[in-house]
């Protein structure tokens, strides 16, 4: 095997655990990643190149191990790793192994990932924003958000984030400034007071989310195609000194070129207005004013609402994004070019007196009400925690019900018939106009036809 460490070599942790090197996962600018066997199963070790194994980096790893982030979406450093046979002070760190069913974003961009769809991609985006929110909430900057350190599971939208060995406090210098395509303009220009912070992370996060949904960089339009030599000076101009958003409403100089950049043109056309507005903010005013960049909470909440508004075209069955809320603008199916008929929706209400709607859920045939829909505050979305499931009526075509997937009964009011009934766990409430469902704890849902 290639690499610094031979197969069978034994490394250790400060606690005395022995790690046997089995093979390599890959290598990068900082070091190499190995699969190691332990008494608790396979793990991964990132082993630093000699020039990167500095006392400062060792201190960072020890700090990260001592202050773990309580979020399983990060492959966080678990222990410092050293080589008993090496007197030069080489080291690395131990972390969990990325499961085989997680793919990287380049595979998505190359259309090599099967089973991914709009719903799952939206969950990936939501999880990404939510994960970095958890990191930033502790005052830590990631410093190098890019498509190489995010992995996703196409079956459920779960994510894993690797290369967390520089995610320390904002004011600590790690020597890492980021990847050029994702660096904030002030970092690319090397402005005198610029340094990696949560604010520069927010720019990189917006770039990552745009690429995730659009399969294209937000600043790489006509200006990129005009570049004859893509050297450091060209990258600095494109991403730093003269960045222009592809769809800047006030500057059309960097529009994507038809025939050359058709994917981003098509994806932008079907993107819901609520997301287009956020991307426009991030890559117009946000380029020059870091304090105006889109926060992780806004991305998370918006993607959550967008997920609840995805519907299937009644003509061809393809999924389409619908703007969240009541009375969205008409949508033409991206596949068959017919108008998408909107299904009924549930309005989740958390204020009984004011009937204040907190969320609108489009009731497609596979729609679900999740636990996070019923909470007043949400720290983490979990799409495995189902509260209610839409089911087709067993005998009446076109009629649907909502099955109680909880352990407590619901109380259902029908304003049209003035009837009141309990829906026990496992039973179904028939959905019809005038229906109001009491989930408990002051949370209600109103059934609306459109």
Number of strands: 21
Give the radius of gyration. 25 Å
How far the N terminus sits from the C terminus, by CA atoms, comes to 61 Å
Helix share, percent: 10-25%
SS field, number of helical segments: 11
Assign the structural class, choosing from mainly alpha, mainly beta, alpha/beta, alpha+beta, or little secondary structure: alpha+beta
What's the shape?
globular
The main β sheet shows up as: 6 strands, antiparallel
Fraction in beta strands: 15-25%
Mean pLDDT: 92
Strand sequence of the main sheet, in spatial order? 1-2-3-4-6-5
Low-confidence stretches: none
Could you characterize the architecture of this molecule?
Strands 1-2-3-4-6-5 form a six-stranded antiparallel β-sheet, with helices on one face. Helix 3 (118-136) packs antiparallel against helix 5. The model has no long low-confidence stretch (mean pLDDT 92). It is globular and about 80 Å long. It has eleven helices and 21 strands. The longest helix is centred in the first third of the chain and has 19 residues, at 118-136. With 450 residues, the protein is an alpha+beta fold.
């Amino acid at each position: 095997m290639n690499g610094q460490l031979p197969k069978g070599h034994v490394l250790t942790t400060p606690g005395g655990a022995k790690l046997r090197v089995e093979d390599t996962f890959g290598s990068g600018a900082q070091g190499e990643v190995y699969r190691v066997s332990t008494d608790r199963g396979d793990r991964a070790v990132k082993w630093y190149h000699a020039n990167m194994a500095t006392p400062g980096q060792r201190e960072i790893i020890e700090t990260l191990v001592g202050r773990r982030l309580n979020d399983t979406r990060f492959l966080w450093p678990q222990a410092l790793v050293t080589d008993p046979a090496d007197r030069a002070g080489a080291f690395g760190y131990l972390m969990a192994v990325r499961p085989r069913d997680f793919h990287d974003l380049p595979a998505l961009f190359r259309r090599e990932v099967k089973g991914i769809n709009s719903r799952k991609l939206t969950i990936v985006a939501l999880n990404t924003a939510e994960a970095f929110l958890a990191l930033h909430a502790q005052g830590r900057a990631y410093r190098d958000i890019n498509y190489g350190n995010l992995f996703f599971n196409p079956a459920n939208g779960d994510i894993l984030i690797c290369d967390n060995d520089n995610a320390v406090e904002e004011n600590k210098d790690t020597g890492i400034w980021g990847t050029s395509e994702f660096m904030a303009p002030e970092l690319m220009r090397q402005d005198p007071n610029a340094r990696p912070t949560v604010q520069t992370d927010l720019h990189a996060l917006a770039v990552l989310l745009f690429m995730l949904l659009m399969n294209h960089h937000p600043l790489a339009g006509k200006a990129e195609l005009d570049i004859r030599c893509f050297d450091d000076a060209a990258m600095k101009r494109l991403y730093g000194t003269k960045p222009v958003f592809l769809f800047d409403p006030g500057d059309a100089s960097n529009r994507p070129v038809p025939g050359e950049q058709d994917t981003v043109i098509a994806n932008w056309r079907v993107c819901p207005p609520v997301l287009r507005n956020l991307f426009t903010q991030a890559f117009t005013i946000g380029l020059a004013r870091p304090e105006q960049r889109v926060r992780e909470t806004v991305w998370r909440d918006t993607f959550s609402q967008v997920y609840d508004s995805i519907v299937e075209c009644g003509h061809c069955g393809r999924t389409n994004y619908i703007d969240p809320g009541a009375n969205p603008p008409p949508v033409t199916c991206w596949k068959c070019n017919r108008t998408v008929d909107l299904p009924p929706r549930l309005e989740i209400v958390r204020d009984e007196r004011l009937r204040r709607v907190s969320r609108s859920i489009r009731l497609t045939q596979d729609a679900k009400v999740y636990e996070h829909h019923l909470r007043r505050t949400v720290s983490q979305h979990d799409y495995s925690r189902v509260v209610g499931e839409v089911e087709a009526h067993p005998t009446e075509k076109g009629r649907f019900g909502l099955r109680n997937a909880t352990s407590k009964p619901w109380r259902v009011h029908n304003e049209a018939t003035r009837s009141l009934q309990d829906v026990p766990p496992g039973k179904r409430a028939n959905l019809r106009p005038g229906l109001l469902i009491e989930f408990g704890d002051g949370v209600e849902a109103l059934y609306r036809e459109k």
